[in-house]
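Re: weekly structure request thread

Next one in the queue (399 aa):
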Amino acid sequence: MTLTRPWARVALAMFAVGWGANQFSPMLIVYRHALGIGPGPVAGLFAIYAAALIPGLLAGGPASDWWGRRAVVVPFTLLSPVATLLLMLGRDSLLLLAAGRALGGLCSGAVFGAATAWIRDLSRDEGSSARRAALALSAGFGLGPVVAAFLAQWAPAPLVVPYLPHLLIGTAALVILLPTPGPRRGAAIISPQDDRPVRGQGRGAGGFPPAAVRSSRFWLTVAPAAPVVFGSVALAIVVLPAEVTSARTLSAGFAGVMAVLAFAAGIGVQPLARRVEARRAGAAILAGLAATAAGAAAAAVAVAATNLVLAGTAALLLGLGYGLCLVSGLRQAEHLAGAHDRGAVVACYYVVAYLGFAVPYAIDGLNGALGESSALAAAAGGAVALLAWTWARRPVTPS
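Done, posted below.
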């Protein structure tokens, strides 16, 4: 990827915001020990992010269709390091930590949908644009918690130093993004002859949510598997580190290792996912659901045996599920959208995908009734049921 290409500059901004969004995950363990807070406030800090992210997605995607991608992506790329600064300043204050998480969620929501649409505007085809957006998002999501976890484990000032890399990366991404061309009012489409955006259609009629999202094809073929995208990775980086090490000392470093395994697999499989989707629409989602089912089953055995090696294997499988489902889901969502409502459709897809971050809460609720390993086995069964549903529905075929 060369930053001389406009889409690459947008992808870098998406990477930086993704880094800022997920760097907080391994820090939850640190805050529990350093501040002496219980699981309730920790869960609240995690939930505040999601509560702010969903309105950001629902507003940012349609706003970018109307006012242009730059008008949404640039200011919220600027605010993302500000959110990190609040986390640094609020190391001893739950109120400031909550404010930083809320602002970070708002930035993520506004940028992810609009930037994905912007990358599509600047790319030649939806196959490459879906992979580029998925790669940028996955790299940021993966490297952010890994670097934060290792710095929290071994660097001084573990409530401050882990956030410094994002301040630098976020600022650099903003500077590089500023000269990037973007569509003005009304959506832009890409010229098939070159990489320059040309004036496209005006804002489409029909209101919000867009017609594509109101269609049965979206809800029956794209939406059902969407929560698996972040649900699979949440199992790997949130549930497994706590469950497998529950009888030992909770380690931010181990959480970082699990993030490395999951996101390395998720990023590495994305070029293959694009090729599989090009040959048969929806095939990557089927493969991703199968990998997620296998990963959840392996996680159940790892928790029952308190086996760290098997937990790592489960993280790899869950990461494969994440990468395969993300590329295929984005491509199908982009296919359903038109140039005039692409930001809104992609944003709605991300909203459904982010429901997967409720998986840790669902697993925690099932633990009391079923036990830790049985709850994960139930998650594996759910993935198998989704696989059967998706196979039966015959996913949307890109033209």
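The chain is about 75% helix and 0% strand. The chain has one domain: 7-177+210-393.
Next request, please.
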